[in-house]
Amino acid sequence: MDDIQPYEGFLHLNGWICSALWCGVKEIDIRFIYEDVSTLSTLLFSCQSLVTSKLNIRVRGNMKVPSNTCLPNLKTLHFSFSKFQDGYSVIMLISNCHVLENLEFTYCEFGNISKLNIHNLSLKRLVLDFGEMHVHSQIGFSVIEIDTPNLVYFKYVDDTMVEGYTISDMKYLERADIEITLLDRVDYEGATNLLKEICNVQSLCLVIEDFSKTLFPTPFDPVLAFHKLVEPEFRNQYNEDWQGTRICGVSTLHA
């Protein structure tokens, strides 16, 4: 469903969505620009037939996810520019989708939680893109916990590192795209902890916004070791004269 202009009305949009869901639609893709919309139909989170749900809700209203929701056939779930009043309900939704393989959060806000806990055993692709939201204290949490042991692809974008990361062993991880901004020692420590958790990745694209000449200004203890890495790509958005890195196994590479 392409962008709908304001004059067409929020009620019409909700009516179309409900009609499609009642007919047992398997895929829904909404891109909505109506600034006055506060929420969308909760049927989006209870339709048993859905296999793909992509919700690009470019509004500042609160998305309400019913508690104890289970979508047994959902394999792809994307949220963009969504504001969740109850962040915990979203976490439960993810855990209750037992065949979910593809999950994306882009510029989303989570209320009433101190940590974002993503637990799903079937998940293979995960994108967490918060951009500058954390800088402006809009993200809603300070800790990220990821328990997705079958993950194959991971993308993480954040202009400020959260306070802590706990990531399960991703033994099947093939590709990671990480884009972060390092402003102080706390950010360096957060970045170190994040990279330690994905050291078994085979292909890594690491984009840093940092004024230092090396990837990190001080040695790691213990040293980061990417023993399986065969496709490294490092870029510094602020410094084109990077001299190298302190990551074991790729320390001879130059950005």
Shape: globular
Q: What is the N-to-C succession of helices and strands?
A: HEEEEEHEEEEEEEEHEE
Judged by helices, strands and strand pairing, the structural class is alpha/beta
Bin the helical content. 10-25%
Mean pLDDT: 79
Radius of gyration: 20 Å
Summarize the model shown.
About 15% of the residues lie in helices and about 30% in strands. It is built from 3 helices and 15 strands. The longest helix is centred in the N-terminal third of the chain and has 13 residues, at about 10-20.
Task: List the defining traits of the structure above.
255 residues, alpha/beta, 3 helices
Overall description:
The protein has 255 residues and is an alpha/beta fold. The chain has one domain. The chain has 3 helices and 15 strands. The protein is globular and about 55 Å long. It starts with 9 loop residues before the first helix and ends in a 19-residue tail after the last strand. It comes from Hibiscus syriacus.
